Amino acid sequence: MRCRSVLTRIDAMRTGELAADERHELHDHLETCPSCDESVGDVESLASTLKALVPAPPRSCKDTLKGKCATSFAELEGIWVAFSKEGLRMIHRGGTEEEFRVKFARRYSRPLERASLPERLRKQVTAALRGEGSAEPLVDWGEEATELEREVLNTLSRIPRGEVRTYAWVARQVGRPKAVRAVGNILANNVVPIVVPCHRVVPTGGGIGNYAFGSAAKRELLRREGVDVEALEALEREGIRYIGSKTTKIVCFPSCKDARRIREENRVPFHGESEALKKGFRPCRRCQPFAKTA
Description:
By secondary structure, the protein is an alpha/beta fold. The protein has helices spanning 3-14, 20-32, 34-52, 59-65, 97-108, 119-129, 147-156, 167-173, 180-188, 215-225, 229-238, 257-260, 273-278, and strands spanning 71-76, 79-83, 88-93, 112-114, 165-166, 201-202, 242-245, 250-252, 267-270, 282-283.
C-alpha cells in the first residue's frame, strides 16, 4: 500500500469504517513508515481538538433535552465528578461549578444536573485520591472517545499501583510504537484523571513530567501510591533509565517491583535499552521495559 492510499484511509480507520483487509494492510504499512504513522497521530490530535471546540448548547435546548441527555454530577473532596448510569464521565479538580459545567459542555454538549454520587463510584474516586487505586475503573467513555483513545486510556489501568511507565511503553502496548506524540496528547486530554491513572506515565527521558492538575499534584499522587519520586528524579539527573540485576541478567524500569528487590551490590544501571542488550541483559517480562530485538 502506497503512502497516498494510506493517507486517504486514515480517518476511516480511526472511525472504524475501514474494511478488515484494508485495515490489516494499513497497519502493516504504518509499522514501516514513520511519516504515515505520525500522520495518524496528527489526525487523532485534530479530532480531539475539534471535539473540544463544540459550543455549549443554548439554554432553550437544555430545557428541551433535560432528562433525556443530562448527565449527573456531584462534588467530592474538592473534586467535581460527572457521571452516568454506566460510570464516570469527567473529573475536574478546583474551579467553580459554572466552570465545570462549561468544561463538560465543551466536551459532551450536554447539560449537567446535581445528584448524589453512587456509592460504587464514590469508592473509586476516594480510593484513587488516597493512593489505593482501582484495578477496573468504572468509566463511561461514550461515543466521543475514539478507538485509540479507549485503547490508550484502558492500558493505564494495567500499570501497577506504586509503579510508573513511559509514554513510549504505552504506545508499544497499544501496538503503535511510533505514536508516542499521539499517546501524549490523549493522556493530556484524559477526562477521568486520578481514577484512570495517567499520573503513572512519565517521560521516556526520565523524571516525573507534566500533569493536568500540576506537577505537585502528580508527585503527591505517586507518593501516596508508593512511588519513590525523589529516587526517580535522582536517576533522571544521572541519565539512568533502567535497572538490571547481575544475578538474573534481567533489566526493569526502576519503579518495577522486581527492580526494587534487587540488592544494592547486584544493581546495574543502564542509560538505554541498547546498552542493556549489548551487555546480555533481557527485558523483564513483568514490566516490559522494551522489546527484545532479534
